[in-house]
Amino acid sequence: MSEEPFVSRGFVGKRRGGEQKDRIPPGQYLTDDFPVLSAGPTPYTPLDQWTFTMEGLVKEKASWTWQEFLKLPMQKYMVDISCVTKWTKLDMQWEGVSLDTLLEHVELDRQAMFVTAYSDGGYTTNIPLTDVINGQSFIALKYDDKPLAPEHGGPARMVVPHLYFWKSAKWIRGIRLMEKDKPGFWEALGYHNRGDPWKEERYWND
Predict the structure, then answer these.
(1) Residue spans per domain, the chain
(2) Would you list the DSSP string of 97-140?
(3) C-alpha gyration radius of the chain
(4) Could you list the pLDDT tens digit for every one of the 206 residues in the chain?
């Protein structure tokens, strides 16, 4: 495994150059902390009961146990994250499995245009398929070279760096491929359906 952080083409474009001020979306403030924000209590699923599934508009669903998931190709990522609560943290270091790698294990129906990420605790979030492919998202298992802590979404969290952080579903257990969009937990409560920080897409009317 390479020790160099993996930075995909999708992430490079969001860095907006090397200057810090050019990497902070409008309306955001820079922080060195990693705030903990959740919609409900932190779930704790024993790893011997944990699975991850790709389902929905696929010819045959694919599922992995924790031990099987650990055998998938891992990459290191260094990305900037912006939360809808207005904090931005730069150069966050993660390690995980690209969504592109997972999609190689299923045959997509041509009608698959959207995904719903679903999690322990009942959390869901919806994302266009075009926002999670081509190196734009991954399932993180580590943060700062350590197993991802439960309060930050461990054992596994989806990370979609170019969208607001609520789209990066904590405690993720699967991805459902769909033909039509369906609002997830926060989206159904009035948050923006896409959530692009650079366009300040925080709420439905933004």
Answers:
(1) 9-30+49-199
(2) EEHHHHHTTS-B-TT--EEEEEEGGG-EEEEEGGGTTTTT-EEE
(3) 16
(4) 333 333 333 333 344 445 777 899 999 999 998 878 766 688 899 999 999 999 999 999 999 999 999 999 999 999 999 999 999 999 999 999 999 999 999 999 999 999 999 999 999 999 999 999 999 999 999 999 999 999 999 999 999 999 999 999 999 999 999 999 999 999 999 999 999 999 999 998 86
Residue with token string 């009608």:
111
Residues in the chain: 206
> Which CATH superfamily, name and number, covers 9-30+49-199?
Oxidoreductase, molybdopterin-binding domain (3.90.420.10)
- Residue 84 token pair: 């809808």
pTM, whole model, 2 decimals? 0.88
The whole-angstrom separation of Cα 6 and Cα 166 is 23
